[in-house]
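Dock FE2/S2 (inorganic) cluster; give full complex structure.
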Amino acid sequence: MQTLPTTAQAAPAGHGFDLILERSHLRLPVAPCESIADVLLLAGVAVETLCEQGVCGTCVTRWTAGEPDHRDSCLSPEEQRTHVAVCCARCHSPTLTLDL
Ligand code: FES
């Protein structure tokens, strides 16, 4: 059984995936070397960040589909069912849909 990392520094970025912005009707590729927050900012989507390490919760965003790879230490397991810290999260599935 695979153990999932719990912090942004715990594991390498891994593979890329596509980000789907539900309300903006955008599909954005996230390369292994990029964070979701970086991709959102490059696309002109406003997202606030502060610690960029999954600690402060500033970047937390609601997700609606996909299988997030949570790497933060600010969200409870209950909160992770609906929200993701976009500064450090990756994705186990080919796509991750955000409520943006
Ligand atoms: Fe602090 Fe993402 S910017 S948790």
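Observed: Residues 49-52, 54-59, 72, 74, 85, 87 surround FE2/S2 (inorganic) cluster (CB under 6 Å).
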